Amino acid sequence: MKKILIADDEHKIIMTLEYAFRKAGYEVFIARDGSEVLELLKTETPDLILLDIMMPIVDGYTTLAEIKKDKNLSGIKIILLSAKTGEADIKKGMDLDADDYITKPYSIKKLTERVEELLADK
What we know:
Elements: E1 3-7, H1 11-23, E2 27-31, H2 34-40, E3 48-52, H3 60-69, E4 77-82, H4 87-95, E5 100-103, H5 108-120
Parallel strand pairs: 1-2, 1-3, 3-4, 4-5
GO biological process, one term: phosphorelay signal transduction system
InterPro entries: Bact_response_regulator (IPR050595), CheY-like_superfamily (IPR011006), Sig_transdc_resp-reg_receiver (IPR001789)
Domain Response regulatory: 3-119
C-alpha cells in the first residue's frame, strides 16, 4: 500500500484529502505544519507528500528544502498545494525541486490523477 503524507494547517482540507486518498487505497499520514512533517519523517517514509506552503512554525518551502537535503528522503515525491498563485511563488517551489505545484482551489479528481501519475514509476 502506497503511503501519502498530507501536510496542511486547514482542518477541512486535511479531512477532504484524507478521505479521498484512503478511499483510493492509500495509507494516509497527517501533519499540521512543517515541523510535524520533519518529525514524522524520522519514523515513516511516505511515497508522496502533499505539502501546503503557508503553515505555522515551519512553512512548506523550508520543509521541502530540508527534505531534499536529506539523501534518505530526497526521493519522496512532493506536490506543493498552495493558495499562492504568483509566478515567483511557483518558480520558488519548482526551484526547490518540488515534483509539482498545484494551486488552490483544485479538483480532487485531478489531484488524485496527478498523484497516481507520480507514483506510477515508484
